[in-house]
Design goal:
Blueprint lengths: L4 H14 L3 E6 L4 H4 L4 E3 L1 H9 L6 E5 L2 H10 L5 E3 L15 H13 L6 E6 L4 H9 L3 E3 L4 H11 L2 E5 L2 H11 L7 E4 L10 H6 L2 E4 L11 H10 L4 E4 L5 H6 L2 E2 L2 H10 L5 E5 L2 H11 L5 E4 L15 H12 L11 H15 L3
Parallel strand pairs: 1-2, 1-3, 3-4, 5-6, 5-7, 7-9, 8-9, 10-11, 10-12, 12-13
Helix pairs in contact: 1-14, 3-4, 6-15
The chain binds 1,3-dihydroxyacetonephosphate (13P) and iron/sulfur cluster (SF4).
Keywords: 4Fe-4S, Cytoplasm, Iron, Iron-sulfur, Metal-binding, Pyridine nucleotide biosynthesis, Transferase
Organism: Streptomyces purpurascens
Catalytic activity: iminosuccinate + dihydroxyacetone phosphate = quinolinate + phosphate + 2 H2O + H(+)
Amino acid sequence: SPSDPDLVERARKAKEKLGDKVFVLGHHYQRDEVIQFADVTGDSFKLARDAAARPEAEYIVFCGVHFMAESADILTSDDQKVVLPDLAAGCSMADMATAEQVAECWDVLTEAGIAEQVVPVSYMNSSADIKAFTGKHGGTICTSSNAKRALDWAFEQGEKVLFLPDQHLGRNTAVRDMGMSLEDCVLYNPHKPNGGLTADELRAAKMILWRGHCSVHGRFSLDSVNDVRERIPGVNVLVHPECRHEVVAAADYVGSTEYIIKALEAAPAGSKWAIGTELNLVRRLANRFAPEGKEIVFLDKTVCFCSTMNRIDLPHLVWALESLAEGNLVNRIEVDKETEAFAKLALERMLALP
Ligand code: 13P
Ligand code: SF4
C-alpha cells in the first residue's frame, strides 16, 4: 500500500534534522514504506558490518528484528546507540533457543560424555545469550551464506557440531553441502528430557540439530514446489536454506537472501523464477525485474510475510526518528558487557573464517 504522505514528510524532516548523527539500516524483509528511508539494505550479516563501519553515527536505527539490533550493538563502539523502532519485533526462531535450555543441553552432552568433542555453531538468528554461549564453548556464528565454511571450520576443531537454533539450515548444509547423510543428524528437542535422545544416539551423531525453525520459511512445502512447476513450465525454483529439507532437495537453487538477489540480477531476460523466501523481498524483486522481462513469483499460494519484521512500519519509524531528533533516546538495544564479550568472540571467529 502507498505510504501516508504526511508520515513520509515527517520521516524525511526528522532524518534531515539528524543528518550524519543517524544511520538507518533496513533488512531485506522490511516493508517498502520503511525501506525507502534505509541508508543501506542487506541481510543480517551485511547490516551488522555496515553499522560497525559507521563510527560517526551516534544512532543506528535498525529496521529489522531484535537479534539483528543486538548483533549491531555488539559490533559497534560503546558510544553508538542502536535503536529498534518497535521492541516487539522479535524472531520466533531466535526465541526457540533460550539460555537456560541451551545450558541444559550442554549438561546432557556432558553426561553423555561427548561435550569435549562438540563445537557449537550458532546461526546469526539467535539471541546475544546464545552467541555468548557459543563463544564460551569454542564455537562460531554463521549466516546462511557462510554456513558451510563455518561447519568446515568446526569439524576441524572437534568431531561433532551442536547447531543452533535452525534445524533446517543445519541439516541442509550438512547433507547438501558437506556430503553427510540424514542419519548423521539427530534432532535435539529442548522440551523433552535429555532432548528426547538417548546417550547412544548422541554419541553416534555428527550433527546435533536444535529443534528450531523459521515460521516463514518452514511453511513452504514439497507441494508448493510441485504446484508451481505444473503451473509455470520451465520455472526455476530458488529457495532459502531455512526451508525444510524436502523443499531444498526439490529446488533448483538454494541460497541466502543476498544470493537470491544476485541470482536474479544475473538471470537472463525471459527466465521464470519461483522464490521461496519472505514476501516483502519477493514482491520488491518481482517489481524490480519485471521491466527486464524476468517473471518472478512467490513460491507459495498463500501470503507469507514475517509478522515480526512487519512490526516495523512507517509510524514506528517516524516515532523513533522524531524522538531522536528531539534528543530522546528511545528503544535502545544494549547487550550487557559480559554477554557482549563472549558473543563478540563467536562473531569474530565467523569474521575470521577462510
Ligand atoms: P538473512 O538475513 O541472513 O538472509 O536471513 C534470513 C532471515 O530469516 C532473516 O531473518
Ligand atoms: Fe525470524 Fe524467520 Fe522472521 Fe527471519 S523470517 S526474522 S528467521 S521468523
